[in-house]
Specification:
This protein is an alpha/beta fold and about 150 residues long. Helices cover about 40% and strands about 30% of the residues. A 5-stranded mixed sheet has the order 3-2-1-4-5, sandwiched between helices.
Length: about 150
C-alpha cells in the first residue's frame, strides 16, 4: 500500500531563548527537486514544545497522504512519538509514575497527524553536518528572536 504513496522528507527543529522563553519552530519538506520551508513561534514556550510543533506543522503542510521520512535532532520528539506514546495512551495520558504527560495536547495532535501518513522517524546530531537540520535551526532561532 505504501508503494503508491509519494515519499517525502520532513526535517524539523525547535529553538527556545531561555527555557521557558520565546521559542521558534521550523521545518523543511522535500519531494524530489521541490522543497518548502515553514517557521513560526510563540512568545512563551519551551524547547520541547517547539520540537513537537515543528513536526506538527510540517505534517499539516502535506496536501495528501504520504510516506514521510522525518528527521529531528530531538530524542524527546523521536522517542516520544515512536516509543513512549504507546504507554501514555494506554495509561490515559499519564506517565509510569501517574503524573500527567507534559505537552499531551501536542502529542495527541501529532499522533493524529501521524495516523494520516506512513511515518519513519530518524535522529540526527544537532548543529553538525546535516545541512537541512542546520537550516531548520537557523529558521527556528530567527522565529524565536521575533518574540524577544
Amino acid at each position: 500500500m505504501s508503494g503508491e504513496l509519494k515519499r517525502v522528507s520532513l526535517i524539523t527543529d525547535g529553538a527556545c531563548k531561555g527555557n521557558p522563553g520565546p521559542g521558534g519552530w521550523a521545518f523543511i519538506l522535500r519531494f524530489g527537486e521541490r522543497s518548502r520551508e515553514g517557521a513560526g513561534g510563540e512568545p512563551h514556550t519551551t524547547n520541547n514544545r517547539m520540537e513537537i510543533r515543528a513536526a506538527i506543522e510540517g505534517l499539516k503542510a502535506l496536501k495528501e497522504r504520504c510516506e514521510v521520512d522525518i528527521t529531528t535532532d530531538s530524542e524527546y520528539l523521536r522517542q516520544g512519538i515512536t516509543e513512549w506514546i504507546k504507554g501514555w495512551k494506554r495509561n490515559n495520558w499519564r506517565t509510569k509514575s501517574k503524573a500527567p504527560v507534559k505537552n499531551s495536547e501536542l502529542w495527541m495532535e501529532l499522533d493524529d497527524l501521524c495516523q494520516k501518513h506512513v511515518t519513519h522517524w530518524h535522529w540526527t546530531k544537532g548543529h553538525a553536518d546535516h545541512p537541512d537540520n542546520n537550516r531548520c535551526d537557523e529558521l527556528a532561532t530567527t522565529a524565536a528572536e521575533r518574540f524577544r
